[in-house]
Amino acid sequence: MSLAVGDALPPLELPPISRTTLALYACASGDHNPMHLDIDVARGVGLPDVFAHGMLVMAYAGRLLTDWAPQERLREFKVRFVAVTQVGARLTCRGTVEQVREEGAHRVAVVGLQITDQAGEVKLRGSATIAL
Amino acid sequence: VIDRSFIGWQSEPRTVTVDAARVAFFARVVGETNPIYRDEVAAKARGHPSLMVPPTFLVCLGTDPADQFRLLDTLGVDIRQILHGEQEFQYFAPCFAGDTLSFRGRVAGIESKKGGELELLYLETDVQRSPDQLVARMRATLVVRHRLPGGELR
Fold first, then answer.
1. How many CB pairs lie under 8 A apart between chains A and B?
2. Chain A interface, mutation test: which of B23, B26, B30, B95, most A Cβ atoms within 10 Å?
3. Is residue A10 less than 8 Å (CB to CB) from chain B?
4. Long-range contacts made by residues B3-7, C-beta under 8 angstroms, separation at least 24?
């Protein structure tokens, strides 16, 4: 793979997050936290609505990475959930090559990750290390 | 306040054989279109033993859907207090449907923040394919909120 610091990964634009997506993600992941499913529970603690599972948002970042490089090359993947993601959010995942370096006998690329919603609010920041 | 004597506490290992149908369902729900995650024939044609486990699905496999909140119950934390702050994976080998994986979690640390308004709970989980093959290590930071918009929770 020939690449340079500053190269951008092809961005991944996602459809709006629906309540159906959250319900299906709860089933598929086994994360049944009612704060993602039940508006009454969310309102009960003073929130206006349910919000997306952080790990759903991270799964989208994973798609960005594995669309770009085979998953076998992924060595490290870490994120910070900067803000909760609301129902209806239209997320875009972006990645940029931040470093190319030798790690032992291998060359690796460090990719900086960011996910924003339609208003440009950052939801997730992170990085991934990928063997070249 | 979470009892600090839980620092170092280890869960019982959870052993699970990765079900191809569950991998394919997860892949569909997150909008994955790459057939190595959804179509066993295509995955095998690309040289894989079966469907590949997507990067974040290991967290799901490590949780018992029938008893998801056991750890939080043990720690005395209400699920409504939790926000997922950070998540990290280190991968040492790819995993596939059909693999039998063993998950062992531990409480790596507990810290108070903002004068006790928040606590950070650091969890680490090792994923083994056999006793001598560590395939991944996961770290989660959970934010435990002691005050919510609707008022004090506990």
1. 119
2. B30
3. no
4. B3/B75, B3/B76, B4/B110, B6/B74, B6/B75, B6/B107, B6/B110, B7/B107, B7/B108, B7/B109, B7/B110
Report the alpha-carbon distance of residue B128 to residue B125 in Å, rounded. 10
Residue B151 in contact with partner chain A when CB distance is under 8 A: yes
Q: What is the pLDDT of residues B25-58, one digit of tens each?
A: 999 999 999 999 999 999 999 999 999 999 999 9
3 state DSSP class of A34: helix
Report which DSSP code applies to B97.
T
Partner residue facing A44 (CB), from B54, B85, B150: B150
Please write the tens of the pLDDT for every residue from B8-24.
999 889 999 999 999 99
Give CA–CA dist B126/B138, Å, rounded. 6
Is beta strand B82-91 parallel, antiparallel or unpaired with respect to B133-145? antiparallel
CB distance A124 to A104 below 8 Å? no
